[in-house]
């Protein structure tokens, strides 16, 4: 799974500079190793219904 990392001003400035140089927006992501949760059919259907309602992708993960 990937999350948007918290970046300091130096990192943000470097990203903005590169975006300007290559004339392309960049999105910073950080990999977070997370095992998926196993859902039964009913739970999966409820997750999918909420995804549709909210227009987002939801990821069920095992609690750590």
Low-pLDDT ranges: none
Task: Give the class from helix and strand content and strand pairing.
Answer: mainly alpha
Helix content: 40-55%
Q: How many alpha or pi helices?
A: 2
Q: Roughly what fraction of the amino acids lie in strands?
A: 5-15%
Q: What spatial order of strands do you see in the largest sheet? A: 1-2
Number of domains: 2
Major sheet characteristics: 2 strands, antiparallel
Shape descriptor reads elongated
What is the count of β-strands?
A: 2
Rg from alpha-carbon coordinates: 17 Å
Written as H for each helix and E for each strand, in order along the chain, the element string is EHEH
Q: How many angstroms separate the termini?
A: 14 Å
Round the mean pLDDT to the nearest integer and report it. Answer: 96
